Amino acid sequence: MTAITEDGVRLWASRSGEGDPLVLCHGGPGLWDMFGDMAAMLGDRASVIRWDQRGCGRSQRCAGPWTTDRFVADLDVVRRHFGLDRMTLFGHSWGAQLALSYTLAHPERVSTLIYVSGSGIVPASDWHAPYTDNLAARLGEDPERLARWRELPKRDPERALLQWTADFADHEHALEHARRMADPWFDINYECNKALNAETAGSWGTAVLRTACTSLDVPVLIIDGAEDIRPRSAVDSLEKALPRVRRVVLPKAGHLPWVEAPEGFRDELETVLGRTSRPGRR
C-alpha cells in the first residue's frame, strides 16, 4: 500500500494480521522497516501496520525535510490512511524516539506506547562514547571482523552489516541475524541520518522535553535487551520522568530483543495486546 503525505511523498505501508491496530516505527534514522518476523509473530494478536519512513527503504526518495516534526506528521498520515482513531504505537531504537515524540504530540491517538531499545531523553553525548567503546569491544570478539569493519568505507553495505552484528548478544549467530536484517537491502539514507541526529543533538536532553514526559497520561511499556551495547542507563531518564510506565529487561538479548528472546518479548507485548488462547501455549 501507499500512503501519500500532504507534500506528495509516497510512503510504503503494509498491514497484516488480525486484532487491534499495532503500528511499528523502525530504527535509523535513514533505515527501513525490518519487522517482517515480528509481524508474523504477532499476527494472531494484532493488526500490524508497518511503514518505511520518508525517503527510506521502499518509500519514495525525496529531499526531506528531515525533521522530527515532519516524521511525526508522516506517521499521522499512516494512521489516517488505515482509518485508525487510536493505536498501540511501537518504536524501536530511533523509532522509539519518533514514537515518543508522536505520543507527546498526540496522546489522544495512542492507547499504549511500546518503547524498545531507545536511548532515553538525555543528550546523545551522555551515551554515545560508551556505545562506541562497546561497539569496538563486541566486534573485537572476532578480530578479523573488527579489522574488516575498520578498513571498509563508511558507506559500504558490508560495513553496515558487520556493524549490525554487534547488536546481538549471541556471537555465534550474530552474522546470520545481521544478514537477515539486510535482506532485502535498500540504500541507507545518510542525509536523513545526519540531519535528524543533528536535530536530536540540539533538542534532546532539555528540561522542556522532560517536563512534557512527566505530564504524559499514556501507559508506556519500555523493553530493553540486557546485552544492548547502547548503555541502558540512558533510558533511566525516561523511566523516571514518565508517570505511567513499566520497564522490562530481557536477559541474553541485544538491541533487537524480539530476535534473541522471542518468547519473552511476545509475552510482554501480550500484556498490552491482550491474551487469548492459541495452540501450544498455556
Question: H/E order of the elements?
Answer: EEEHEHEHEHHHHHHEHEHH
Low-pLDDT stretches? 275-282
Strand order of the largest sheet: 1-2-4-3-5-6-7-8
What fraction of residues sit in β-strands?
Answer: 15-25%
Instruction: Look at the structure and give the CATH class.
Output: Alpha Beta
Shape: globular
Helix percentage:
40-55%
Structural class: alpha/beta
Mean pLDDT over the full residue set: 95
Helical region count? 12
CATH topology: Rossmann fold
What does it look like?
This protein has about 280 residues and is α/β, with parallel strands linked by helices. It has one domain: Alpha/Beta hydrolase fold, catalytic domain (Rossmann fold, 3-Layer(aba) Sandwich). Helices cover about 45% and strands about 15% of the residues. The chain has twelve helices and eight strands. It has helices at about 35-40, 70-80, 95-105, 130-140, 145-150, 155-165, 170-180, 190-205, 205-215, 235-240, 255-260, 260-275, and strands spanning about 1-5, 10-15, 20-25, 45-50, 85-90, 110-115, 220-225, 245-250. An eight-stranded mixed sheet has the order 1-2-4-3-5-6-7-8. Helix 10 links the parallel strand 7 and strand 8. Helix 2 (about 70-80) crosses helix 3 (about 95-105), helix 5 runs antiparallel to helix 6 (about 155-165) and helix 6 packs across helix 7 (about 170-180). The model is unreliable at about 275-280 (pLDDT under 50). This is Alpha/beta hydrolase.
